[in-house]
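Below is how a single chain appears once it has passed through the pipeline. First comes the sequence as given, then the structure the pipeline wrote out for it. We keep one example in the README because the format questions we get most often are answered faster by looking than by reading.
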Amino acid sequence: MRARRLAAVATVALGLVALSGCRAEPGVAAYVGGQRITELQVADVIKDLRTKNPTPSAEPSASGQPAAPQPTLPEAADVVRTMVLTKVCERLSAEKNYQPRGQATADQAAQQLGLNPETGYAREVAKLLTCMSGLPTEPVEPTAQEMADVIAAGRASGKIQPQVTDEQAAGQLNGEQLQGALATKHLLNDAAERYDVTVNPRYRPLEFPLLSFTEDTAAVSIPLGGAGSGTVTDVSTPDASPSSPNPNAEGTAS
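Resulting structure:
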């Protein structure tokens, strides 16, 4: 079976790296330069998500039909990713005078995420997507290592079959989607480094997908808060518990 083309993640399609700088202020989830995202802000978003999107009963209906599967609510790590990336995107856009080319609405974001449109997180996602629409994405040819990483992810996901050679897979995958994702990755990596982005270790390690083979396997992603990043003191709060990465969207292969 041929290696399949990638499709962009449907909701938030970008991430950023948490980079060096010593930060040790209690109760801070992340820094973007001098801007703080606090654990209290994250907890408030999570509380709003749970209040406006209550989990329905898993009991069968009166007709005996099983309850329909429900979307998974975003978790604290998803909230931090979105809030940090919004600040980076807005700061970069102001610096470079990038103007949005599209306007995402809270209703559109809520529909993609399966949320109540009154949810604050949906508004934050819409703000991020609107900002991201103005970022330039001149195609970037993948390096040999970048292409090897993409192919390895495709094989791990089962989307690239064993009989497909690396050369064949590279020829089929190296197109506009992949090159655009790499361009955006490089742009946001550079911005995050210059803005001294630092993420609380309780949310590490995180990966934010740009393109995905499956819900669980990213083809191109940016790590959040990798080893060697600056320190933010881990102070627990009741509603902002650490979680495993969950982009809340599935990139499909076509």
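The chain has one domain: 7-53+72-224.

See the next section for the split statistics.
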